[in-house]
Amino acid sequence: MDATAQEVQATKANQEKSQKLIQTEMVETHKALVKRIANHLAARMPASVQIDDLVQSGMIGLLEAASKYDASKGASFETFAGIRIRGAMLDEIRKGDWGPRSVYRNSRKVTEAIQKVEARLGRDARDFEVARELEVNLDEFYTILSDLRGCRLFSFEELFDSEESRMQARSGDRGPSADIQEEKFKYALVEAIEKLPEREKLVLMLYYDEEMNLKEIGKVLGVSESRVSQIHSQAAVRLRAKLHHWLG
Q: Structural domain tally of the chain?
């Protein structure tokens, strides 16, 4: 090997070493981001979902983000890593079936009931109207909503963290048609959220934008934590009903 080849090899080795140091620093700096996202997700999942498991999968997502981040793409590393981390955690959650078959059957029934009531009345369905369509009393309806909390079918994150959304964090080749479909879905989702009843829209805003937990939101609204959970589930069900042609 001549001197020039040795210099090139040495330069390449130094660049790789420098890159690994930068990646290690990125991971160390953003460990807290993994824990924050894990706590936020765990708050709405069943007790069987352990924070430690979410953190572990989130750290894998963080490591992948550090190795694949490209600053020239325009996104900040925290934004890029956040999508990767959440995606890794949600993939971990999706491996399990967090709800019994009866919950999934009820989820479909509630979605269909909302669609029928709103098509018939031409406005948002009220709780008692959906309950009547389901032929259950209001307490039974609220119990169904409570059971849906943590069920992956009704996780609000499923609307945002679909495979199409998570692909934003990847540098792979996306065709123009995928980008157009994703944009159309985003507009449809925003429009559907805007059409939610004010209380449901407020709960989503406080929960996702302000990152308040259910107990804190309950204090703001003057209702119990369980009632906030029901409102949250109701919003997710209503959105899924409005976006059924997108979500299948």
A: 2
Residue where the block lists tokens 């790789």: 16
Render pLDDT for 10-28 as a digit per residue (tens, 0 to 9): 566 555 666 677 778 888 8
* Same domain assignment for residues 35 and 106: no
Q: Do residues 241 and 191 touch, judged by C-beta distance below 8 A?
A: no
Same domain for 195 and 165, yes or no, is yes
Max CA distance (Å), the chain: 85
Are 92 and 214 part of one and the same domain? no
Confirm if 199 and 223 have CB atoms less than 8 A apart: no
Distance in angstroms (rounded) separating the CA atoms of residues 117 and 127: 11
CATH number of the domain to which 241 belongs: 1.20.140
List pLDDT tens digits, range 176-230.
665 566 667 767 777 888 888 889 889 888 887 777 878 888 999 999 888 888 8
- Give the separation between CA 117 and CA 115, rounded to whole angstroms: 6
> Where do we find the tokens 């065709």?
175
Structure tokens at 34: 């993994």
Last residue of a domain, one of 53, 78, 96: 96
28-59 residue pLDDT tens:
888 999 998 888 877 766 666 778 888 999 99
